[in-house]
Predict the structure.
Amino acid sequence: MAVADLAAPDQVAEPVERGRPPRQARRRRWAFLGVVPFFAYISIFLLIPTGELIVDAFKTANGRFTFANVEAIVHAPYVPAFEFSLEVSAICALMGGLLGFLVANAVLHDGMPRFLRGTFSSFSGMAANFAGVPLAFAYVATLGAEGIVTRLLAHLGFNLSYNFDGLIGLSLVYLYFQLPLMILLVIPSIDGLRREWREAAANLGAGSFRFWWHVGFPIVAPSVFGMMVLLFGNAFSAYATAETLGVTNLVTVWIAQLVNGNITVDPQVAYALAFGMIVIIVVTVTIYTLIQRRASRWLR
């Protein structure tokens, strides 16, 4: 009887407990309200404008459906602009990715002072956001025709010819914010390498080079390649720095010129150019997502 009496309250209470909604489920319902402002912000400032832009790319000024705008961007002068933008983005991705990985690996080396990591992280966070008009002014004041470094080298007998409009010149300017961005992104991936892997490689007689060649780089390679893809998209969509430096052969600059009327006013073609950029960015993000999925398997 005593056992039955003790079990009875539990048996009676159990259906009541099951009938009530779990407290955790109720919390999740209320927590969903917290992301409503985020989805509203994304919809108002990203999804709806992007949808309207894509629709306008296939319309005439009178609102009729047409493919003429999209057909126009596959001819000169827009094709060279796409080619130049892709070339600059590719150079920035390769150089920024490689140099950023080497610098981050050097900073995180066991023999380096610990304060260097905080210093590099702080500087990289600032430099990654230092772009646009301030960056263009800094480069003109430093390496322009009358820049400080240019005049100093001229006094020393060296003639520095630096063209910001060229492929290499603009790529070097973009590297100022691409390189620190890569450092910030790649540090967590290098930290994800377990110390046991290094110790095991050392116990087997492998030096630093052999460890990175056979263990380290194969593991972080998907993350590094994914971040290089991200750098590619970041450089491809940059505008203010190139516009301030007077570069005219970029897709983003052409869009601004067609909208503002610096050369001619043709917003429909500008919409088509923006649509072409969206296609390239979507492909870039898709490649980045696929690479990051592979990288996450190794760094769990």
